[in-house]
Amino acid sequence: MTSLELDGKVSLVTGASRGLGKAHALKLSSLGSKVAVNYVDIEGESNQADANRVVEAIVGQGGEAIAVEADVRDVEAVKAMVGEVVERWGKIDILVNNAGITRDNLLLRMSEEAWDDVIDTNLKGAYLCTKFVLRSMMKQKWGRIINIASISGVMGTAGQGNYSASKGGLIAFTKSIAREMGSLNITVNAIAPGFITTDMTDKLPAERKEAILSLISLQRFGQPEDVAELVAFLASDRADYITGQVIGIDGGI
Predict the structure, then answer these.
(1) CATH code of 49's domain
(2) Among 172, 67, 173, 192, which Cα is nearest to 128's?
(3) Which of the residues are catalytic?
(4) Cα–Cα distance between 207 and 221 in angstroms, integer?
(5) How far apart are CA 38 and CA 71, in angstroms?
(6) Which tens digits make up the pLDDT trace of 208-225?
(7) % of the chain exceeding 90 in pLDDT
(8) CA-CA distance, 150 to 166, in Å (whole number)?
(9) Is residue 2 in some structural domain?
(10) Which domain holds residue 108?
(11) What tens digit of pLDDT does each residue of 115-124 get?
(12) How many domains does the chain have?
């Protein structure tokens, strides 16, 4: 890829204050895209400072970025976020539906709240963001929607019935919207990462990490930058004829 392959493009990355989202935002910016760094402050946890640091890193490298707060589960918040980005830059070309949470437990012990929180964030959030961003993409007859799913949505994971269901739903959503939007030159694809080293995965017990590592052909865990490279490719003109696909990036599980 050329260094400015996404020059003139505008990207919105949800859940971009850290982890995978941060890596996606930095990578897209490095290729010339303006980037809206979404974050949310909920449950007594503030991500604003982390989001601002991502923006500062982008600006420090000569890019252009803003931090935008929105709970992707909230229709009015998403509408306001999309409106803010479009008002500032006139459009949104690339949407990375990255925001996601886990509330792991065996099904018989899983609360209804834990189920709803994960489905609402991981699946409903992608639905809302896609719905409102599509208006900009349809107007210009060009767009890239990249949904961050998971290997759990492909093969299922014990103790993650809610998470697996949300990511499996996201995969089906990807395929459906790709069919709806193809005639307008809007591609919709999903990435299914395996075990990627982030704050989320760092919370897993050591014995579970060892068990997962034993299943990975490359015998190492992935890094956020590994996924960001694929996001950048799917966002580029090089991926013009790729849509409705689910691409695994899991080291060969």
Answers:
(1) 3.40.50.720
(2) 173
(3) 163
(4) 14
(5) 9
(6) 889 889 999 999 999 999
(7) 90
(8) 9
(9) no
(10) 10-248
(11) 999 999 999 9
(12) 1
